[in-house]
Each structure stands twice: as C-alpha cells, then as structure tokens.
Amino acid sequence: MKLAVWTYEGPPHVGAMRVATGMRDLHMVLHAPQGDTYADLLFTMIERRNHRPPVSYTTFQARDLGADTAGLFMTAARDAHARFKPQALLVAASCTAELIQDDPGGLAETMGLPVPVIALELPSYQRKENFGCDEAFLQLCRALARPMERTTRVTCNILGPTALGFRHRDDAQEITALLSEMGVEVNVCAPMGASPADIARMGQAHFNVLLYPETAEAAARWLEREHGQPYTRTIPIGTNATRAFIEEVRALSGSSLPVDESRLRQPWWAASVDSTYLTGKRVFLFGDGTHVMAAAKVARDEMGFEVCGMGCYNREQARPLRALAREFGLEALITDDYLEVEAAIEQTAPEMILGTQMERHIGKRLGIPCAVISAPVHVQDFPARYSPQMGFEGANVLFDTWVHPLVMGLEEHLLTMFREDFEFHDAAGPSHHGGKAQPLTQSATVPHGTAAEGGSTPPPAASLPAGMPSLDNIVWLTCAERELKKIPFFVRGKARRNTEKFAVEKGLHEISVDTLYEAKAHYAR
Amino acid sequence: MTDLTQAGCRSTPVLRERGQREVFCGLTGIIWLHRKMQDAFFLVVGSRTCAHLLQSAAGVMIFAEPRFGTAVLEEKDLAGIADANAELDREVARLLARRPDIRQLFLVGSCPSEVIKLDLSRAAERLSVTHGPTVRVLNFSGSGIETTFTEGEDACLASMVPTLRETHDKELLIVGALPDVVEDQALALLGQIGVNPVRCLPAKRAELDPAIGPNTRYALTQPFLGETHAALQRRGARIISAPFPFGAEGTTLWLKAVAAEFGIGPDKVDAVVAAPRARAEKAIAAAARTLRGKRIFFMPDSQLEIPLARFLTRECGMEAVEISTPYLHSDIHGPELDLIAAGPTLSEGQDVDLQLDRVRTTRPDLTVCGLGLANPLEAEGLATKWAIELVFTPVHFYEQAGDLAALFARPLRRREILAASHPNRMEAAE
Q1: Preferred mutation among B49, B302, B327 to probe A, highest tally of A CBs within 10 A
Q2: Mutation target vs B (from A9, A30, A41; most B CBs, 10 A cutoff)
Q3: Would strands B172-175 and B198-201 be described as parallel, antiparallel, or unpaired?
Q4: CA spacing 20 to 30 A to A488: which of A98, A300, A441, B22?
Q5: Are B250 and B208 contained in the same domain?
Q6: What is the pLDDT of residue A495?
Q7: Ranges of chain A whose pLDDT falls below 70
Q8: Are B291 and B397 within one domain?
Q9: Rounded Cα gap, residues A216 and B193, in angstroms
Q10: Catalytic annotation present for A472
Q11: In terms of pLDDT, which residue wins out, B423 or B351?
Q12: pLDDT at site A454
C-alpha cells in the first residue's frame, strides 16, 4: 500500500483508452464498475475532444456482483458492436474487474463477433498508464499487422502519437512535413489517426519513426523483429536532435534531399545578445524520461542553462536517464511521488523548473517559474495554435515557452540595481505576466538591533550550536539575512545554498555579510 | 407564487433503465467535503484509478495540500488481507504523524477494497483505539459499485450520525454540506425568523458536531441524503418534509416548513424574508428572460435534477423534456414532484446510448449532463450545462437563486453571442 496524493500516471486501462481514442473505427469494451466512466472527461474536457471516446463500459454495481457480471460484459460487447460497427474490438478490464476475474478476452472470443477481438491484459496493481498505451498498441499490431510487400517509394510509419499526449497532434504534423521534405512518405501514423485497416498495412513501410518510446517502443521492437523494419532512436526535440534525426532518416531511407532550415529561428534567438542573461540559469527537469532527456540536452547545449537536477516518473526509462544524469554530473531522481519531487526542487533551489502539470503546482508553491515539457498536462497545455515540441518549429516553440516564465533580461538588471524600489521590486514578479504588484511593505520589527545596524554582531540570545558546522546547524546573522533579501529572488536560493556550503567548508558556524560576499567571490564565474 | 394545487407528477410512471451509466462514483464528494470539514482527512483505500479520478474530477489540482489521499492497493495487498490491514495501519500512522492537525479520519472504501472484502469498519474501530481520543476514525464507502456521485456525501454523513452525542433538547439540524457563505445566510434567516438553536451536519470542525435525539428536527438541504435521513430516523430524530431551498419559491417553502415545526407562522416568515425574496425574484427574472420557453433535458447525475427541474419550470419558465435521476427517493423527492406539472418523462437509472438517442430525437435547447458528454453534445449542436458545476457552486437560498438561474442561462447566452462563428452554425440554421 502506498499513499498517493497526486499521480503522474493513471491506471493502465486509461493508457489503452488513449490508444483507442486516438484511432478511428476501433471500439473498446471495458469491463469496469460504475464511476470508471470519469476517464471520458480526460478526453472531452482536458483535450477538448468533440466526440466521446470509443469506449463502452459495463458499469457494474454491487447488485450485479452476485448475479452475472460476465453476462453484462457480453451484452455490452454485443451492443457496442451493433451500434458502432467497428473494424476491430479491444476488450479489457479495469482494476476492479481484474479482481472479479470474468476474463473479458475469453468471453468475447466465445461470442463469435464478426470482427477481430483483441484482448488486453492490463495488470492494474503493478503497471500504469504508459504501460497501458504501449501494451495496447503492441497487441493491436500483433493482431492486425500482416506481412506485406514494401511500397515502391520509400515510406515509413510514425509510431507513438496517442490521444491526450503532450503535443502529439502537432509533433506528428511537424515530423510528417519534415519527412515529406526529405522525400519520405508516411505510410501509417499510429495509433493517432489510424484505423485497424491501417494497422494491417503497416508492414508496407520501409522503416519506422518512433516518436514516443513511452507509448510505442514495444510495438517498434516487435515490428523490427517480425517485419524487418528498423526504427529511429533519435527523438527530434531541439535543433541538434532534429538535425541528428534527419541524418538517421537519411541513413535509413537513402534520402539526400536538402532540408530547408530557414524557418528555424531558435539558434539565432539563443545567440542574440538579449539572451545573454539566460547563461547559466539553473533549471530542474522532471517529467517522462523521453522528454526530460531531450530537454536536458536542449537546456544545456542550445539555451545555455545549467541543469541542476533531473528525473522522471516512469521507471521504464530509469536506466538511460540515470546514465544521462551522470554525464551531467548529477544523480537522477526516479520517483512517482510528487512530494519527493517537491522536496528535491526545494533543496536544489533552481531558477526555473521544466516539468509537468505537477511541477507547475510545485513551482507555484515555491515561487519558482515553471514551463511544461511533458505529460501529465492540463487543459491549458492543449493550445489552439500549432505548437509542436519536435522538429525545427518545435525548437522555436521550446525557446519561446522556456523563456516566457522568466523575468526579462533588462528587467532583471533593473531589479538587481534598484531592488528595493517600492513599486518595482522582485516580489512583484515578471512584469509581462499581469497579476497585481503588491506594494513593498517594510518589515515592522527588526529582531536584533545590534545586527540590524549593519555590523556583524551576533544576536545576543542565540547560543552557538555545538559541534562541527553543517548545513543543518548553521546560523544566518540578521544582517546577512537582510543582505540576502536584497538579492533578487530568482538567484536568492542559489546564493543561500552557495553561502551555506561555503561556510561549512570554511568551518564557520555563522554567516555574516562578509561571509555572504566571500562566498559570492568564491563562486564567481 | 404559482398555484400549488395543479396536478404534479408524483404519480407519473417512471422509466427505469439499466445499461451503461455515465456517472461519477461517490469518491467525487471528497472534493468538496474535504474543504468543508477543516480538521478531517479522507483516506481512500483503493487503486490508482481512484487517485486518478480524484485529481481529474477536481478539474484542477488544488493548490494547497489536499486533505485527501489514496492508499493505493498493490499486488501484495491483494494476496493477503492480514498484510493489507498491517499496511493500512502503517500508512495511517505515517499520515497522522505528518498531519497532527487532523481530528477526524475517514477511511473511504472503493470498488477494489469492497471486492476484496477489506473490512474498513473493523479497521476504523481498530485505528480509533490506537489514535483516539485525539483522532476519530470513521469509514464509509465511496465506491462506484455502491454509490453514485453525490451518494458519497450521503454515505459520509450517514457514517457520522451514530457517533453524534445524545440530546433531548429540541433543536433544528440542517443536513447537507453547504458552502460557508450559504450556511451563514441560512443561519441568519432562521435566527431572524426565531428558530433556534440551529446546528449543522457536517460541522466545520469535529468539536462543533451537533448532538441528536428524539426532539431533534432536521431539514435536508440536499436531495441526495437518503441514507443520512434513514440514520437520523434511527436515532429518533424527525424530518421536516419540504421542497429544497432552491430558488425563491423553494427557499420560502423550506423556511416555512421549518418555522411551522417550531410553532412560527408563515406571516412571520413572509415578513422576515420579504427583502431577500424580492431580490431573488428580481435576479431570477433577469436570467429567466433567456430561459423562458426553452426546453431542458436532464441526464442523471447528482440527484439535484428533480428540485432543479421544479425551479426552472416554475420560476424560470422552462419546459422539461426529460428529468432523469440516478435514484428517485419517493419520500425525499415527493414534495418536489408535487410541484412539477405533469408532462416531462421521468426516468431513473441510465442506459447512456439509449438516452443520447432520446436527446438527439427531442433536440432540447439545453441538456444538463456530465463532463464526459458535454463537449460531444455541443459538437452536435446541442447546448449543455455540465452538472458538476451545480455541486461546486453556491446555489441554495435567496441570495444565490439568481446565480443558479444564471448557470443555466449562460450556455444559451454564449451560443447566441457566438452564433455567427460557432462550428455548428450550419446545423443550427437547419
């Protein structure tokens, strides 16, 4: 048993629903108790879909448990087929139905429905949403994809986009356009937009482009093994990765057509002098493994940020993420407990978070700006405008969205110069974000007169901690604490941490104004 | 006020359907209950699905640390119930150590905990011994196999009734979790009318919980409190039967029924409520300009459907096509049904696909439905009002009556404003 307040991933049947909802002419029958239909609103509200997900639920209740839940399932399956006439039917059980062991797959098989019925095993008490996507898509491919002759022209399949994915709609469009520029036609993009008949002809493609290992890696591996289709390993997020992806596609397709980079603005936007202030900004990354690994490289190599922490919630990606973190001189945080992530962020005191909807909340609590780079996301992360993360337009989008939460460069300078202006102070927040600037209130009481006068006199009552100084028992003198407050908020966390670390190294029990500036000089770059 | 003697629809035959029910489970009630009871924590013993529902149903995650969480069952908990109990005890101890401000802990049963027959009432007794008297541990079921949406609040309040102290005083008990502002207004009105003392269930904090006994008279403020009603009767308390305090008419009738029970005549009530009632009627009239003559279809959701249909048909001039509710309690909903003019289809339960067929056939001007159905219906050119907003918004009593009417008017006004650019403008013109 594990206490969860917020979860990064839903249960596996929600993953399977993401696959089904992304597709056309497919229907899913989910053996599930009343109430599990809440999952529909993820799609109709958060993603603003204008159709109900193609899912029929058995919605059994307590009175059905003693009676015939299996019969209920068969009725639901028969009705769903008659009403929706899908090309194929997915059947699965949610967590409660798993416990009553009605075996939806076996039941559906006995019904003799005239369409392929694909049964999913979704162990709800072990696995999560991403597994549900990956597994559902794999089973669809296994059941439907037939060996076929390759197309005459070089084609590929795009694997991975699902319903409710973070920018999947636009990524698929951007990458399709990029491939088309290279003379590579997309045979099937799946699951999103594909019908079961499309899945059947996936074997015609020469290779596969895997966009999201979270949702489609198992299928990519199976297609490689069974249909001899190699798949791309590079995730085209950021300028460098997109260029590497183009090279990978060239190697797989033999394409030598040039790719037009004239609409790629990110490199110049990052190089232009206005962006100098971004240099060395400390960012903490958290999300799904794929997006975090890609974003870490963009943050360091294309934005000039310093990555001060990274992690992911999906254990499936722990190994490559740990390896990348080591390369960055960091230890990766692998957890699905958002309180642990919050503690890590608080301790690291970054200047910005690149995370999920969850980290947006953490950032709000800790007063740290946050941009969203990964699922889970909320309604505001399904924009009306075209806004991919991948390809060259994706690189442009990353630049804009990551810079937006920050205080602008010149504003940052002014705040550093005039940090106690009553109207224009750091607690007012970035001026382009709206919100009402609170007038600066003078602290009414000064706890220790002697220290407040600017000297380094320790507070009279404070007894010095015994033993060796450590980060836990170090004391900030009031004067130093006041001086620290004059440092703009976006670097204050870093200054506090560095000073404490410096003091411990020097064996100091107390931090005075001098210690603060000595530490500043020590860490100057 | 409209004539009360016309034939209502208490005797209208009810269409009962069984099929896919597109409704929330009772866990959803935790979203508002955990804010109402400020020293309570709701620990769902369930699956990842339960946790996911709670954060999705909340729509947005609540910024402050919520006073609810899910103890997610894992494979090993399913293998042995003894272990599951030990695990639960450990999680509760950790939780209470981290939240020393908690005075009431609700163990909330879910579909999986019920199917594996994890006995949360015994767990609550055991944990009460361990953590009492500082913390009172209770249990109720919010599972989808036992409860539909607002029945979760009902189950929660019903679980509290046996623990309430005994009293022989004649007191009024207002039952149902109301927003603070509404509760304050209700108490002020009752005070001016001369009804006192007045207690509330649930109270904001455990120490304010009401006492109860044979002289307690209680009035429900929500139409979904059937189990709580039964539990209160078992304690000897007596219900004051009345329409629910929605709209100017409902509020007046509710107050008069309460006053009568305390020996206060309707003239006194009329005198006290004259000003707020006039304000309510004025505010309702503004929204009714949009609503008058429009046809409304209620999908089953919160059990508020019947009282709201009464309000919208009698005070806002709407015409009800179908009024559907998850459960129809004849003694609780009876006074409401008496007031609704015969005509609309009354239905209980749901087969969602069949019901959607009826929506498409009758093409109402406004359909009240859950979040999963609203956008798909809008995309078909049918205006909707999502029902969950009705339990998340202060809508009871006079000062909110205009807001309640406006909740239904807004989607219609919005469609008018957007008519020229709406994606369904062609269909609408047909």
Answers
A1: B49
A2: A41
A3: parallel
A4: A300
A5: yes
A6: 82
A7: 408-467, 490, 525
A8: yes
A9: 67
A10: no
A11: B351
A12: 36
The full DSSP string for B32-73 is HHHHHSTTEEEEEEE-HHHHHHHHHHTSS--SSPPSEEEEE-
pLDDT digits (tens, 9 = 90+) for B326-350: 999 988 999 999 999 999 999 999 9
Of A1, A40, A365, the CB nearest to B88: A1
* Cβ neighbours, 10 Å, residue B289: 11
ipTM passes above 0.85: yes
Can you give the pLDDT at residue A438? 58
DSSP E strands in B330-420: the ranges are 345-350, 366-369, 384-386
Residue B430, pLDDT > 80, answer no
Is residue B5 over pLDDT 70?
Answer: no
For the record, the structure tokens of B66 come out as: 């919520």
Q: Is B47 on the interface with A (CB under 8 A)?
A: yes
**């002020």: which residue's tokens?**
B188
For residue B183, give its domain range. 172-266
Torsion sign over Cα A133, A138, A143, A149? positive
Q: Are residues B296 and B381 in the same domain?
A: yes
Q: What strands, in cross-sheet order, belong to the sheet with B68-72?
A: A2-4, B68-72, B40-46, B104-109, B136-141
pTM of the model: 0.90
Could you tell me where the beta strands, DSSP code E, fall in B195-278?
Answer: 198-201, 217-220, 238-239
Q: Which domains does chain A have, with CATH numbers?
A: 12-134 (3.40.50.1980), 145-253 (3.40.50.1980), 274-403 (3.40.50.1980), 449-522 (1.10.8.550)
Question: B242 with B365, same domain?
Answer: no
Is A151 in contact with A235 (CB distance < 8 Å)?
Answer: no
What is the CA B134 to chain-centroid distance, rounded? 30
**Whether B424 contacts B379, CB under 8 Å:** yes
